[in-house]
Specification:
The chain has about 250 residues and is of the alpha+beta class. The protein contains 8 helices and 9 strands. The strands form 4 sheets. A 3-stranded mixed beta sheet has the order 1-7-4. The protein is globular. The structure holds zinc ion (ZN). Zinc ion binds next to helix 4 and helix 5. Keywords: Hydrolase, Membrane, Metalloprotease, Protease, Signal, Transmembrane, Transmembrane helix.
């Protein structure tokens, strides 16, 4: 049903329509573990603010996600990984087991391996070089994982589930990541370079493992999902998380 619009959105994506036309020169701090940690923290805070506002506007009680940036030399043990997650774990993830820390109850924990994120900023995804990878690759991965937290809040308080509990969960998280990027664009804080990095990351993290329960969607499906968040649906062409729910939570 949304195919016509989505193919339009895709052509717009690859033409990079609707984004700021110039990227500023790279004159920031050195790309190292420390600046990567700071960048991740800033992204989590920014996205947390966006989603907290939206969830509160939906009448939901907001419990934040705990987040852990795993530093070099550390192993982070969670309910989801008893053997621990190192700083160079292949991917970030959201562990939906709730956590209580210092008397505060959190809705799940975001586990963000710093070395893997640093490599993305340096232009490498899954050990493959990418000319488009950069800071916003990291932001897209972080906000995808935060998308799982938003789903978790929706599931626990609205008692609803995605129709397809495998792939659609992943595509919805990509869509939520696109929503956040669209909100950045609306604030004039998204460059063409950021946009390209986000699309490139969704395309490169697609897979064709259709029978694997861990199948995240093909490259095309993942780019389309992100674009659904970023551009909206034909019936509602705005940055609105409801578009993600409409598309992936039938
Ligand atoms: Zn995911």
């Amino acid at each position: 049903m949304h195919r016509a619009l989505l193919s339009l959105a895709i052509s717009a994506l690859f033409g990079a329509v609707g984004v700021a036309s110039t990227a500023s020169a790279q004159t920031g701090p050195p790309v190292d573990e420390e600046s990567t940690t700071a960048y991740i923290e800033q992204t989590v805070q920014d996205a947390d603010e966006y989603w907290t506002n939206w969830l509160a506007g939906q009448g939901l009680e907001v419990k934040h996600a705990l987040f852990k940036i795993v530093q070099n030399g550390e192993l982070y043990v969670s309910e989801c990984s008893e053997s621990g997650t190192p700083a160079n774990a292949p991917s970030a993830f959201y562990c939906k087991a709730d956590v209580e820390r210092d008397g505060v109850a959190y809705e799940g924990v975001l586990v963000l391996p710093v070395d893997t994120m640093l490599k993305m900023r340096q232009g490498s995804l899954n050990n493959q070089p990418s000319e488009k990878a950069g800071d916003f690759t990291v932001a897209t991965v972080v906000t995808h994982e935060m998308g799982h937290w938003v789903q978790d809040v929706l599931v626990s308080q609205k008692a609803r589930q995605p129709a397809n509990p495998g792939k659609d969960v992943e595509l919805m998280a990509d869509c939520f990541s696109g929503v956040w990027a669209g909100a950045k664009y609306n604030e004039g804080r998204l460059t063409a370079q950021d946009f390209d990095a986000a699309v490139d990351s969704r395309a490169r993290f697609g897979d064709e493992e259709f029978t694997d329960p861990n199948h995240h969607g093909t490259s095309g499906e993942r780019v389309t999902a992100w674009a659904t968040g970023y551009f909206g649906l034909k019936k509602n062409p705005t940055v609105d998380p409801m578009n993600c729910i409409d598309a992936y939570w039938r």
